[in-house]
Fold each of these.
Amino acid sequence: MDPAPTEEDLRRVVENGMAGSAMPAWKGRLSDREISAVLSHIKTLAPDAFSAPPSQPIHAGSPPAVTPTRLASGKSVYEKMQCAKCHGAGGVGDGPSAAALKDDLGFPIPPADFTLGIFKGGDDPRDIYTRFTTGMLGTPMPSFGELLTDEERWNLTLYVKSLSTESSLSDEPQTIVAALTSKITDNPYDPVWTKSPPVRVALRPLWQRSRFPRFAEVRAAHDGKTLAVHLVWFDPSKDASNVEVDRFVDAAAVQFPLSDEPGFFGMGAVLSPSNIWHWKADLQADIDLKLAERERRDVESAYPNMVADAYPFLGKDWSGARHDDRLRPVKDYDDPTFLTAWAAENPLSDPERKSPCTEYNAKGPGSLTAQPHGHQSIAGNGQWRGGVWTLVLLHELHSGDEMDAMFSMGDERPIAIAIWDGAAGDRDGQKVVSQWHRMALRP
Ligand code: HEC
């Protein structure tokens, strides 16, 4: 049997997470004792591997300084060892064997794209040195330990690192300060927002992929009554139409646990329910369009040449309708008989909605529940310009609603961010998320 990872290897993964994957960093969020306890538990899950004598740790020493000579000789090691067969000549992961690679379970596994600067196993030069010295168990990434001298390994490490154009962002817990301001506005471009520097929060895909927004910039402010959260993130394409069945929309959410003990950063937990403020680009587009043209997009606008057999409700006389005023149709096609979710008072289907946001509660995956009519108290405005979404979310500090997160001066509470990229097919749990950070309310 292959030697199991050392305790130190396991600890490093749990503490630092795996960059660019769903595995988040737990350092600063779990205590040392909790991390030791979880490591002991992990070992019980693979008793055979961990009962074998521990593997010999690799002592990588300290990395030498980068010099042109070292990079050039690293490049020739890269060529000699045929790293390019899988990782590609330029390191983008597009080598001739790349498409056919499978892991030990038979699933396709792309070779790392070094240009992204995302190293699951850590981006410290020592981590990279270790990766190709040991290989990666369970994957086609071979071990080159015996084949290379220490000198060659360092040169190769420096060369591989030099291929990345970006660096990973630390996932350490950060504090977003919501300071008192005299003006709260839902205009995401108001200069008031850029007065304070943003907090950069690292994001990771819950569904593995190599391209995703790496971070969101978060700011917060309050005026004593309303709390505003301001988010900025990169997204090269604006996806704001979900009328077509094969398209998905951009969206964003912030999550506050109702208690101080946060649950799962992606969706709360049974013992730690969350309040979620969710914004969607298609709802925003409907509202912006409505303001401009008093219209709303529907299947007819996406498919102008479509033909419908019959609309039994067209031209119907509504004067004696028994629906209450809130359900009275504003357009012929708004007959609640056909908008059944709306007739059942699902706020998501309200054809007259005024806010591009929905307020939810969740107690773990599969439990997302929209707050009913009358309890929806979240407003917002998100706009896209030149590859960047800028969004403001507004909510009362103290709504008095027990399912809402409520904030008092001096509070420090956990906050997590989620971003959906429609072009990448994101929807529901397929999203890009942050770990828990903290938001501090200052008078
Ligand atoms: C047979 C194909 C193949 C060859 C040849 C190969 N690799 Fe890899 N390599 C992979 C795969 C696949 C992965 C991704 C494993 C994963 O994601 O779990 C990987 C991952 C890596 C990583 C880790 C990236 C991370 O996210 O931490 C490094 C570093 C690396 N390779 C370096 C090299 C170097 C240097 C060489 C040449 C000496 C090389 N590889 C040769 C397939 C290969």
Amino acid sequence: MLIRVLGTAAGGGFPQWNCSCGNCRRVREGTFAGRPRSQNQLAVSANGLVWFLINASPDLRYQIESFFPLYPRPTSPRDSPIQGVVLTSAELDVCLGLLLLRESQPLTVYATESVIRILLEDNSFCGVLRRLPDQVRWRPIALDEPFCLETIRGMPSGMRCTPIAAAGNFPGYVTAERASQLVVSQASIGLFIEHGEKKLAFIPGSPLVADSWLSELENCDALFFDGTFWSDDELIRVQGTTKTARQMGHLPVGGPDGSLKRFSGLKGPRKIFIHINNTNPMLDEGSDEHRQVIAAGWELAHDGMDLGI
Ligand SMILES: [Zn+2]
């Protein structure tokens, strides 16, 4: 399986347009010991010819142009190797890029039923994806039920995907009344993606690590996990907001019960943090937090990273 990491930041990117935290300020000054990042985005392929997007970030147009295997093929005036998109939630940094794929290109979008309902019933903008009868096929996916990623012609791609509940909530723009009509376990998912014997885990947003995941993760070749915040009160200190990392659906990386500790016994997969918020001190490669991450056997995903598993 080929995995291209097209974007690695949490919502807002790094630097974020309205943020002057120490990290964002130093990136703009050119004095930061680390890399800028676009918003979280993967592309996966079994053969390098047809590709699937994992989420659809607001930076997607630029991210597609950064990777030539995603360029249109010269077989017809309008074409793309991109066959479909798998969404892990209805957060804007996960699905806003769908609107950038509106140019009448056939695509399959895989998402939970609740996420599809939010997009299609509550957001009239998404009507641009339904202008043609065959434009976007919306495929509901169910927790713990594997499904095949198929080409737009309905052929198997060789990759199989299994959604797992990631214990998050619906995005803040979904009202409590609307959320009560939906299924909360479908709000935020992680994915196991398999090709033959090879297996990738992608869990970009979760406030916990379920015990039941650990044995399956041990058998994975690579794990991308939620690297949004270092500490539970990070945004409260930087931004004056009232919600902790966990309340926002993200397990902090550091601390006595953070993800570094929680995964300390995990030896099987290559372990990579993704969806890293611009405020996270581990982005600074000279920081103690960065050293702790590397010492624990983890990597930080960066834009343009390639994995072959
Ligand atoms: Zn910032």
